[in-house]
Prior knowledge:
Largest sheet of chain B: none
Shape of chain A: globular
Helix content of chain A: 25-40%
Number of strands of chain B: 0
Order of helices and strands of chain B: HHHHHHHHHHHHH
Largest interface: A-B, 33 and 30 residues
Oligomer: heterodimer
Number of helices of chain A: 7
Strand content of chain B: under 5%
Distance between the termini of chain B: 47 Å
Mean pLDDT of chain A: 83
Mean pLDDT of chain B: 91
Distance between the termini of chain A: 14 Å
Radius of gyration of chain B: 20 Å
Radius of gyration of chain A: 18 Å
Amino acid sequence: MSKPIVILENIYTGYGTKPVLEKVNLRIEANDFIGVLGPNGGGKTTLMKLILGLLNPYSGKVSFPSGRPPTGYLPQVSQIDKSFPITVKELVSSGIKDKNPWFPHLGTSQRKRLQHILDEAGLTKLASRPIGELSGGQLQKALLSRALINKPRLLILDEPNTHVDKQFESDLYKWLKELNKEMAILLVSHDIGTITPIVKTIACVNGTLHYHPSNQLSEEVLRVYNCPVDVIAHGPIPHRVLKSHEHDNQ
Amino acid sequence: MSDYLSIFEYQFFRNAVLAAILISVFAAMVGTYIVSRKIVFIGGGITHASFGGIGIAYYFGANPFAGAAIFAILTALGIEWIAQKGKVREDSAIAILWSLGMAMGIIFVFMTPGYTPNLMSFLFGSILSVSTTDLYVLAGFGLLVGIIYAIFFRPILYTAFDPEFAQVMGVRVAIFRYMMSVLMAMAIVISIRSIGIILVLSIFTIPQITAMLFTRNFARIIPLAALWGITGSVTGLILSYLLDIPSGASIIFFLTIQFLILKLFFVIKQKIATRSAKV
């Protein structure tokens, strides 16, 4: 077992006096690819905010054994104001973590990195466009580039498959599989059918967290853990959701 | 034409033009932040709440602008605090502070014994009575805003666009938000002297939306908004003299006309482009 990069121990958290998550335990290792599933309002986004440091636990501990890893974050696209006057280039640059957060500026190596990531995502021609002119898929690519420009070791994606076409979705999953060789990925989705084939393990979040060290869930597990998710497979993606497996009570 | 130029021989008019130019420049910077973040309503709240400070200052015989500044800054910080804590509905809180400030202003002005000079000039502004000292204040503040934008441009842009992501990237989001709130409040109060409480918000919004007809790039909106602010306000000033109408209102009127003409131009251009694309 490799050394974990993030450990959540017996976390209780929520907003103000409204508790959202309780008794959450999770270890994220360097090359994990965890699908975070669960119903709306079940606490998926809260879990992410906790790991990102945007939210503090009421009790319990979030720890990073080798220091907080560089983290890439892709928020839900509905959180992005598409009418905001910002260009693709500026958007992607905002993912560069500066050593000096007070006087940030782009150095030569950072400009090179920006060009490289824009090329890789096929956004070079769109670099000077305002984000309001992008399609759903192009905006997701730009947001993902922003998350990746800092070479993260932990990538957190919140519903990256909304407002995009099927072609983009399957390209995205190929890209994520490639990226997973270099970083741990936490993929949040309410849509079990499309993500189970690509993730390695699954965390069911509904008030608390149940971890399944495999990407296959049995009907019983879904029922017992009250993880009412969309179990309809989409398009040509293989549907393995209901295949039974030994449940390891970890 | 000689009439048109002779007005520039008067010191008061030259001062008014300089004031319009200086206000346009810092309003372009602060206003682009306001318009991009869609917080014009917050600007309205700050502006009107400042009237409470003016009223109290009158009552106690203090400097009305100091009163306005204190009220504006406290209101701006209060709204930002409410927004960050999220305990009260933000829009309702703004409406309460907005009308409370106006109410306090009216009460204290009413209670002030004797004649309250220049009350109308706070409401509608008096750009034609701007002194040389006022110009130094405007220039100094413009310089301050310019320096802050030059140094902190990226964190200001990133916190305005996606504060949560900026925070993940280590930007001190809360500090920058409070700083921008104070800057907004100061910019508004300093402009009230010339343009008045009722009209001041327009100089922070109309040139910006005019600039946004041409570009959707935050950094480019600023110089363009300054340009359209200057052309609109200086033309409005000259027209106010020629037509003998109140200067503040004339400026706002011309800024709007300028926007509508350019908007119309873009709509027609768009129509022609779609038509030729069909053919």
